[in-house]
């Protein structure tokens, strides 16, 4: 496996273990770099901790002492740790570089790289791009938020591999040299303001994806997104737009009949399996990114006529007595839920709620016009109920969790109804991840049989 050969630092502090911290620590140790690890919650008896200690890492657990920064020349921060963390703030005062592990992936991987970010649709677009490249006979590896840690995957790639990475704003804030040959900007919507504090900070974090690109690189972007349109001129890369609303001579677009790339019709829309207008945006972005990396029309057609989606993103679960159950647990903000609701014409019973990040749900109200009932849960249950009442929904039930929500929704439903888990909130008030939340819902649906 590859090692870091041109890493400019010698004494690294890994702040926060989890998957990304563990992978970064192993890579640095294998590369002969001094590693100190600081984690507030990790168990000293954890085999991972013991293995890293035996490999030569210094371990500091149970707190964040300022002395952990002594003798350090770079901090590699878990993306989820905010910048107002005491140790991160002190590192900034000391002028220490603060990076995330994706920076290490960018150093390791010498072949083409596609970086994909946006408020919504990252996982679907990343998966589609990867699958299209594979079906086109290209070598492709997939990494990032979607599964394996980026630097771990980058250790195994070769120069012929295209590395396709799903990137969060948290990861992008911690880059120095990271430079995708193709960057993809799907959309920007108010999200993660508990972390970024302002929409402008969030926008700037997303814009990091193209900050190191040159005129040799490409930036695939949503020309229909007004927020993106405001700052796209800052990019040095060649601009490749996509649109669901307008005809384009360059880039990817769709009309009522076909999907096009650079004006060439590739596939009829009615042959595409993946549902939802928002997914058409993801498809167009993936087509453009894959085409820029040598994908064939045959590869695109093969994937789009068979790809039904990714787990927890408008995932069809089951049909029980003519009720259609969908799992959209990955919808962790209002935009994602509004797009999920827009995917259905028939009556919907919406299951929603979760972590309270301080926002209300007024923007969701216009999309509740065909929602006949709501089942709400989590910290935002009260706010969700208010939004439902504002939309004129009278059948609203409050429950404790998604398992109870599945049962309650079934009791409220009739033939032909869609029962949709699309929380519009993060899961961390009750569940460790949106995957755990979605899995609990899926299990509860199967029990209804």
From TrEMBL:
GO terms for cellular component: cytoplasm. Residues 116-290 form the Mur ligase central domain. Its main location: cytoplasm. Keywords: ATP-binding, Cell cycle, Cell division, Cell shape, Cell wall biogenesis/degradation, Cytoplasm, Ligase, Nucleotide-binding, Peptidoglycan synthesis. It is found in: Cytoplasm. ATP binds at residues 118-124. Its EC number is 6.3.2.9. It catalyses: UDP-N-acetyl-alpha-D-muramoyl-L-alanine + D-glutamate + ATP = UDP-N-acetyl-alpha-D-muramoyl-L-alanyl-D-glutamate + ADP + phosphate + H(+). The keyword Cell cycle applies. One of its GO terms (molecular function) is ATP binding. GO terms for biological process: cell division; cell wall organization; peptidoglycan biosynthetic process; regulation of cell shape. Pathway: Cell wall biogenesis; peptidoglycan biosynthesis. Residues 312-425 form the Mur ligase C-terminal domain. HAMAP family: MurD. Cell wall formation. Catalyzes the addition of glutamate to the nucleotide precursor UDP-N-acetylmuramoyl-L-alanine (UMA). NCBIfam families: murD. This is UDP-N-acetylmuramoylalanine--D-glutamate ligase. It comes from Thalassobacillus cyri. The lineage of its organism: Bacteria, Bacillati, Bacillota, Bacilli, Bacillales.
């Amino acid at each position: 496996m590859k090692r870091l050969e041109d890493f400019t630092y010698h004494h690294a502090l890994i702040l926060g273990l989890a998957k990304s911290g563990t992978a970064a620590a192993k890579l640095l140790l294998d590369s002969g770099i001094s590693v100190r690890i600081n984690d507030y919650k990790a168990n000293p008896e954890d085999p991972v901790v013991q293995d890293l200690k035996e490999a030569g890492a210094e371990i500091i657990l149970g707190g964040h002492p300022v002395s952990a920064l002594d003798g350090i020349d770079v901090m590699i921060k878990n993306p989820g740790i905010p910048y107002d963390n005491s140790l991160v703030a002190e590192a900034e005062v000391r002028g220490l570089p603060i990076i995330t592990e994706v920076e290490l992936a960018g150093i390791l991987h010498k072949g083409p790289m596609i970086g994909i970010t946006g408020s919504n649709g990252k996982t679907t677009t990343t998966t589609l791009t990867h699958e299209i490249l594979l079906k086109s006979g290209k070598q492709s590896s997939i990494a990032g938020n979607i599964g394996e840690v980026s630097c771990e995957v980058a250790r195994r790639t070769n120069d012929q591999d295209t590395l396709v990475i799903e990137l969060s704003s948290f990861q992008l804030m911690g880059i120095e040299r990271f430079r995708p040959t193709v960057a993809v900007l799907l959309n920007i919507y108010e999200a993660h303001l508990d972390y970024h504090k302002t929409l402008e900070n969030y926008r700037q974090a997303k814009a990091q994806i193209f900050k190191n690109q040159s005129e040799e690189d490409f930036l695939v972007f949503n020309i229909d997104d007004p927020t993106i349109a405001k700052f796209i001129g800052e990019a040095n890369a060649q601009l490749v737009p996509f649109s669901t609303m307008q005809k384009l001579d360059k880039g990817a677009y769709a009309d009522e009949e076909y999907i096009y790339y650079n004006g060439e019709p590739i596939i009829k829309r009615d042959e595409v399996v993946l549902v939802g207008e928002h997914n058409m945006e993801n498809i167009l972005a993936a087509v453009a990114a894959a085409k820029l990396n040598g994908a064939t029309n045959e590869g695109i057609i093969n994937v789009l006529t068979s790809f039904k989606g990714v787990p927890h993103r408008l995932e069809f679960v089951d049909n029980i007595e003519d009720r259609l159950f969908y799992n959209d647990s990955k919808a962790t903000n209002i935009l994602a839920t509004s797009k999920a609701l827009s995917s259905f014409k028939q009556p919907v019973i919406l299951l929603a709620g979760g972590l309270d990040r301080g926002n209300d749900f007024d923007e969701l109200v216009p999309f509740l016009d065909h929602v006949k009932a709501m089942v709400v849960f989590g910290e935002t249950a009260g706010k969700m109920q208010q939004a439902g009442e504002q939309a004129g929904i009278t059948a609203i039930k409050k429950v404790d969790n998604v398992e109870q929500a599945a049962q309650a929704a079934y009791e409220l439903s009739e033939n032909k109804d869609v029962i949709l888990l699309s929380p519009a909130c993060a899961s961390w008030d009750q569940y460790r991840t949106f995957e755990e939340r979605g899995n609990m819902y899926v299990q509860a649906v199967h029990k209804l049989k």
